[in-house]
Design a protein that fits this description.
two-stranded antiparallel ribbon; 4 domains; alpha+beta; 9% strand; Beta Polymerase, domain 2; Hydrophobic Seed Protein; 21 helices
Length: 434
């Protein structure tokens, strides 16, 4: 494709919506992306900002990154930017470092997609026009092109009107868009929740009809979308949309018939993924105070591990967070000082306490106050052990099963301030070893 300049007016009546926050996007990343556009223009090519960065700027949001669409084929882009790298040659995508920024910018050639036989990627693509490129994108609000030099918007699918109406609508036939890539159902949920948009009825209907097809999508891709949803403050609305659109069952590979609770919406804005997962478990009906809480927790974690492609660390963190909540509700008052300190010292304790506060705030506040008192004792919550295995060996104890028993018993005494010096720890060890 040569240096032809494609016309930018939309084929439908529309108007340009100015940036809602003038100067909002003047960042090194944007300036660098603009310089890439300028370089392409000087070489005779068309180049626009494309996709989510345009959507976000029109909404007054700071884009996470910038993408550029152009009529320059990948070979010409790499000729203009010798240090660029192809990340998707068959899809016409080149990764260019924005001048003056560490930001990497995807520069993609306008394309039209062939059939999607694997419901993920097109079997073939051909380089095309801005109009055809817009027509192959997922949602109208993601199919806009912005000229960063003039501020003009090229809108071939009615994306500006949907932005103004705060509506998420599939480009063209929603059934066709969902059939091309079933993950678009989850992307619709994430965008609608994050942006506070309503999903257009025909698009929502297509998502429900294709919900069962999500089981054919790789679990890694599903888990990534769910993690992005739960790490955003709109996580509670995302969970509601997953249920309303019949996506909950294919995502989690299990049925949760109980009415949704309110833990997700009660979480602090900043919440790690594991904490949000634990709150979602509460919203879906897992009861940390039930007699069978331990067994249902094990089944839930065993199901979610493959369903969401959780890492071993995330799986263990979720299990620990849920388990600590059960301990706080059922066992905390009856635990001795040492056991309470050991529980409070666990990595997920603070996270568990925050999640627990969404369903039992009085309990959480009581435990938190008690932990503050424990922290004020001479030994604190988690002091370095006075007695170690090396010290036991120096004292003449042979390594063996009794080692751990002695070390744990001496450390409990240290946590309870019954021993406060190495010598007193040694004396207790000798007494225990007799």
């Amino acid at each position: 494709m040569g240096g032809k300049q494609w016309g930018s007016p939309s084929p439908r009546p529309t108007r340009d919506y100015p940036l809602l926050v003038p100067g909002h996007a003047k960042t090194p990343a944007r300036d660098g992306a603009t310089r890439i556009v300028e370089t392409l223009r000087r070489a005779g090519y068309t180049a626009f900002f494309a996709g989510g960065c345009v959507r976000d700027e029109l909404l007054g949001r700071q884009p996470d990154d910038y993408d550029i669409a152009t009529d320059a084929v990948p070979e010409r882009v790499m000729h203009l930017f010798p240090r660029a790298g192809e990340v998707g040659k068959s899809f016409g995508v080149v990764l260019v470092q924005a001048p003056g920024s560490r930001q990497m910018v995807e520069v993609a050639t306008f394309r039209a997609d062939g059939a999607y036989s694997d419901s993920r990627r097109p079997d073939s693509v051909r380089f095309s026009t801005p109009q055809e490129d817009a027509a192959r994108r997922d949602f109208t609000v993601n199919a806009l092109f912005l000229d960063p030099l003039t501020g003009h918007i090229s809108d071939f699918v009615g994306g500006q009107a949907d932005l103004a109406a705060r509506v998420l609508r599939a480009v063209g036939n929603p059934d066709a868009r969902l059939a091309e890539d079933h993950l678009r159902a989850l992307r619709a949920v994430r965008f609608a929740a994050k942006l506070g948009f309503e999903i257009e009825p025909a698009t929502a209907r297509a998502i429900r009809q294709h919900a069962k097809d999500l089981k054919g999508v790789s679990r890694e891709r599903i888990g990534d979308e769910i993690e992005r949803m739960l790490q955003h403050p709109s996580r509670a609305r995302a969970a509601r949309l997953l249920r309303e659109l019949h996506l909950e069952r294919p995502v989690l590979d299990a049925e949760f018939p109980a009415p949704l609770g309110h833990s997700l919406e009660s979480l602090p804005i900043e919440m790690p993924f594991i904490g949000a997962l634990a709150a979602w478990a509460l919203d879906l009906g897992w009861n940390p105070a039930a007699p069978d809480a331990a067994s249902t927790r094990e089944r839930l974690v065993a199901t979610w591990r493959p369903a969401l492609c959780l890492s071993n660390e995330d799986r263990d963190g979720l299990a620990s967070t849920l388990g600590i909540m059960t301990s706080l509700l059922s066992a905390w008052p009856g635990l001795g000082v040492a056991a309470q300190k050991r529980l409070a010292a666990r990595r997920e304790f603070a996270l568990s306490l925050t999640v627990l506060s969404t369903i039992a705030n009085a309990v959480a506040e009581t435990v938190e106050a008690h932990v503050r008192k424990l922290a004020g004792t001479p030994s604190g919550i988690s002091p370095p052990p006075l007695l170690t295995g090396d010290e036991l060996i120096r004292m003449g104890f042979p390594p063996g099963p009794a080692f751990r028993v002695i070390l744990d018993s001496v450390y409990d005494a240290q946590l309870e301030d019954r021993v406060q010096t190495l010598e007193s720890a040694r004396e207790l060890a000798r007494a225990l070893g007799v």
